[in-house]
Design a protein that fits this description.
With 199 residues, this protein is an all-alpha fold. The chain is built from 10 helices and no strands. It has a single domain, classed as Glycolipid transfer protein (Glycolipid transfer protein, GLTP). Helix 1 runs antiparallel to helix 2, helix 6 crosses helix 7 and helix 7 runs antiparallel to helix 8. The radius of gyration is 17 Å and the shape is globular. It binds ligand 1PW.
Length: 199
């Protein structure tokens, strides 16, 4: 059931992104991102190193939502206040959270492409190295590879969430498509305001 909730939440965001002249509410975005919290808890300790960082950044966005309605308005406020790249700014946290969504997307693509008994850790390494590796120093990279070493198998993960290989793959596929749309929107949001996405 949990996999479906995640896929649906990002599906809802993708519909908004694809609607002309519409903007993404911060609340809806942070709520969708928070759907992963339970998975982190289940996958502990493999993701312990990432959990605090991801959770606190998503919660920071959630906190921003009463005062700024849309992601674009939130980013604009940081631009006006000249604090886009400041540690802890909403915009900086949004870029980090976007990478989290991207890492999960690459990981999901691996899950779809590999055998049922293949280890989750191989998929996690690949996704991490591709998305976060270039942005992290050696200490964090080491923590990541140490953490992933304790990941269970793909079959065990599906079982924990009461999914069969078939049902899991349906939801994973829909997250892959929906998140691609949302991530492309976020890249556009940053690039159209000349903020860059490689910092
Ligand atoms: C179910 C699979 C979930 C995968 C989600 C992946 C999230 C991985 C996040 C890794 C974060 C590791 C430790 C923290 C690193 C920070 O130095 C860094 N944060 C990130 C997300 O790169 C920088 O954050 P800062 O300086 O803006 O506070």
């Amino acid at each position: 059931m949990k996999f479906k909730e995640i896929a649906d939440a990002f599906g809802e965001l993708a519909v908004i992104v694809n609607t002309p002249n519409s903007d993404v509410p911060v609340k809806l975005f942070s709520h969708a991102c928070s759907r992963f919290f339970l998975i982190f808890t289940v996958l502990e300790p493999a993701f312990k190193f990432a959990e605090n960082d991801y959770v606190s950044k998503v919660n920071d966005l959630a906190k921003a939502s009463p005062s700024t309605l849309t992601l674009e308005a939130m980013v604009d406020r940081d631009i006006e206040a000249k604090r886009v790249r400041k540690v802890g700014s909403h915009t900086r946290n949004l870029l980090r959270v976007k990478r989290g969504l991207e890492m999960i997307r690459v990981l999901c693509e691996e899950l779809l492409a590999t055998e049922a008994d293949s280890p989750l850790k191989d998929a996690a390494y690949k996704a991490y190295n591709q998305v976060f590796g270039p942005h992290h120093g050696w200490a964090i990279q080491l923590a990541a590879s140490t953490g992933f070493g304790s990941l269970l198998s793909k079959a065990e993960l599906f079982q924990m969430f009461n999914e069969t290989e078939e049902t899991a793959k349906i939801h994973i596929q829909s997250y892959v498509s929906a998140s691609a749309t949302v991530i492309a929107y976020l890249d556009y949001l940053f690039l159209s305001k000349n903020l860059g996405i490689d910092w």
